[in-house]
């Protein structure tokens, strides 16, 4: 299925999601989760059973909570916790976002703080715009102002670098990162995107990035030190959106895609393939 590649790309779930995004493997519960932003659902597979959570708004991301099986949900008007079937507001975004913005990608850092991006609502006539924010100890601050589409995020193994994909800036950037304060500075372009659009990303234990390409039917493995292209892995879906490492050895890469407006057999499906490198284990959870 994967064409000229040393990886065997498999379809995990043949459901065609409108805008599959934000995969996350939680090793505590052996649970893979992802969202359908437009479909307003959080999906997860646990013990071989697929289940979903209905969200009242477009859901940009679902990040596992540190102290329960619940999630922090990045919705249009706020960051919410979801536990035991109940939504509770953590951070009100009504006065933070413009009324035509929604939450996009979001991740927690090692301190349990939430990094989240805003982007223009799908189908809007407005030009791409937004900001990258940090929710820390009850306060919301702007970390990168004037983003186009705030997307993939990752931290280096030594927690001294922060990686960030701004899709319509057509680049993946790297910043110096201070873990204690959460400050980022000295932004520079790690690599420029010449073809298609960089979307979500993850990082492996060797500090290499695995980047999804919207419109590109591929994952690219890139050096986190130089941005050099190391490998290209074809994915049989046009709009590849994000990826994460998972399974007990953290060597399986799970890949999401979007299917809206497309008619390819696997557009919008969830994929996986085995790699020869471990992802960062575990990914980080939200502390409340």
Q: Could you explain the architecture of this structure?
A:
InterPro entries: 6-blade_b-propeller_TolB-like, SGL, SMP-30. Pfam families: SGL. It is built from no helices and 24 strands. By secondary structure, the protein is mainly beta. The chain has a single domain, classed as Neuraminidase (6 Propeller), CATH 2.120.10.30. Strands 1-24-23-22 form a four-stranded antiparallel sheet, with no helix packed on it. The chain has a four-stranded antiparallel sheet with strand order 2-3-4-5, with no helix packed on it. The model has no long low-confidence stretch (mean pLDDT about 95).
Low-pLDDT runs of 5+ residues are none
Overall 3D geometry? globular
How many H/I helices?
Answer: 0
Give, in spatial order, the strands making up the sheet with the most strands.
1-24-23-22
CATH architecture: 6 Propeller
Total of domains: 1
Query: How many DSSP E strands?
Result: 24
- What's the gyration radius in Å? 17 Å
Strand-pairing-aware structural class: mainly beta
Mean pLDDT: 95
> Into which percentage range does the β-strand content fall?
over 45%
Helix content: under 10%
CATH class reads: Mainly Beta
Distance between the termini: 42 Å
CATH evolutionary superfamily = TolB, C-terminal domain
């Amino acid at each position: 299925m994967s064409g000229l590649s040393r990886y065997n790309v498999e379809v995990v779930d043949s459901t065609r999601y409108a805008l599959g995004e934000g995969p996350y493997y939680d090793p505590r519960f052996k649970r893979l989760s992802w969202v359908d932003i437009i479909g307003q659902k959080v999906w997860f597979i646990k013990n071989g059973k697929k289940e979903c959570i209905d969200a009242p708004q477009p859901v940009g991301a679902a990040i596992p909570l540190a102290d329960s099986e619940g999630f922090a949900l990045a919705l249009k008007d706020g960051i919410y916790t979801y536990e035991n079937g109940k939504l509770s507001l953590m951070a009100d975004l009504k006065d933070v976002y413009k009324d035509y913005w929604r939450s996009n990608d979001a991740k927690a850092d090692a301190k349990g703080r939430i990094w989240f991006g805003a982007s223009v609502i799908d189908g809007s006539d407005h030009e791409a715009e937004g900001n990258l924010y940090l929710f820390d100890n009850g306060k919301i601050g702007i970390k990168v102002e004037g983003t186009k589409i705030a997307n993939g995020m990752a931290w280096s193994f030594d927690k001294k670098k922060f990686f960030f994909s701004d899709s319509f800036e057509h680049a993946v950037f790297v910043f110096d990162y201070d873990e204690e304060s959460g400050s980022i500075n000295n932004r520079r372009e790690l690599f420029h995107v010449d073809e298609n659009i960089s979307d979500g990303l993850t990082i492996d234990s060797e500090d290499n990035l695995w980047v999804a390409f919207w419109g590109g039917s591929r994952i690219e493995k890139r050096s986190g030190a130089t941005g050099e292209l190391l490998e290209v892995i074809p994915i049989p879906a046009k709009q590849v959106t994000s990826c994460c490492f998972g399974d007990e050895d953290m060597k399986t890469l799970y890949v999401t895609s979007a299917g809206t407006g497309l008619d390819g057999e696997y557009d919008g499906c969830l994929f996986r393939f085995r790699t020869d490198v471990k992802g960062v284990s575990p990914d980080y959870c939200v502390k409340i």
